[in-house]
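Colleagues,

Please find the record for the two-part complex below.
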Amino acid sequence: MTETAAGSSQGAPHHKKQAKTGFFAGIALFFRQMIAELRKVVTPTRSELVNYTLVVLGFVALVMLIVSGLDYVFGNGSILIFTNPTEQ
Amino acid sequence: MFSAIARVFRTPDLRRKLLFTLAIIAIYRVGVFIPAPGVDYSNVQQCLAAGTTSGGLYQFVNLFSGGALLQVSIFAMGIMPYITASIIVQLLRVVIPRFEELHKEGQAGQATLTQYTRYLTIALGLLQATTLVSLARSGALFAGCTLPVVPDDSLLVVLLMVITLTAGTGLIMWMGELVTEKGVGNGMSLLIFVSIASGFPASMGQIISTQGWWVFAGVMLIGIVVVALVVFVEQSQRRIPVQYAKRMVGRRTVGGTSTYIPLKVNMAGVIPVIFASSMLALPAMLVQFNIRPDGTLPDWALWVQTHLSGTSPLYMAIYALMILFFTYFYVAITFNPTEVADNMKNYGGFIPGIRAGRPTAEYLQYVLARITLPGAIYLAFVALIPLIAFVQIGADQNFPFGGTSILIMVGVGLETVKQINAQMQQRHYEGLLR
């Protein structure tokens, strides 16, 4: 946590200085600040990432199985009930 | 994994919630297969089998209704009107001061806002139902299919259809709220997730049959990589440290703890993508309504059709720009730095090295503006994956492993599993996520 302390960011918002610099310099500054902030982002660890990915894939597979099972039953059921038998 | 699932079902509380959710999902899927009154079911099935739907717009809406739209079933509208209504009510807070007041009022105001959302849902449902019924009547729903979808189009039957579809919208809305209240996960997102998942087997089968197993394996691999990427970004956050001052309340010391405000890299979630796609669907809809009786198009519509749909570079550029814009817009609406700073000040909290009050709000705004740009670029990238990569192998725009569906999939999956996990940990089990 200590290394992400806000105080370590170089001087936080200083728009007064920004206003004097040119347009492209402003953009360059913005991107440098963006990268500085991105460095402070806490990313999931490798094991967390693998775990969450597997959980999501498992959850999707499970829901897919359940829904296609339900769809198979209901789909065939509705064809039986609603289709006009003389047309088949 | 399997023992964990067994443990889930041994927890009586959780078992009841899961079974309740499953029951709601089952009811939802039944409704998708029951045709609306007045619809000739066998004709619809034959038209569907012929497989010439009129493209873009419907495919997008059809994806979110789980195939119900093109079947003209009683749940044809799906959960989409409810989602649109809640987004609109959230956006209206910027325009209408009364909505902002209600939002700040807390519990009671929130209840009023929910009530407004419900009315708006019914209104939107009515509008969309009317559109769908008129399309089905005129035969424009299935281009090139001459069988009548609605054989007897007297006024009474048409009215009955519109009322049924609107009632279906209301019922789905209620079911979604029931799941949020008594089941697991957020009902609205879970139902949209179910709708999307129901389309997977068909599109997978389509790839296998048209492209063979090798392409299918490759697509699956890309899909898993994209899922991992989305999980990675969804779990990334910038933690802004907050220190709470120690104070004496009576004889006890309160506070003195240090915590953090988590700012997610992608704070807006999937909403900017949904918004951008529905905005871009508007020109396609205009084209639909301007088809001349002999099937040709006016010049401008032809231009729109070639340049503002599918895979044209112009379309992709506009899409990406809109996503960038809506990400910033939505983050600005949902996260109010001044409000957070004021709250912190009231409870004696501060960010180390920054004064309480306005400087804190400015600092939060500074971080937010810089952290949102990569988030927005990532959103645009994920949304464009199906357009760029999968067009080559002939998969359609709503391919399962790209864009909106994958973002919704991961978001809902993580949220639901985390909620189940929290419930298990309450009972001292180790949970699903080790």
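Chain B touches chain A through 56 residues (CB under 8 Å).

Comments are welcome before we finalize the supplementary table.
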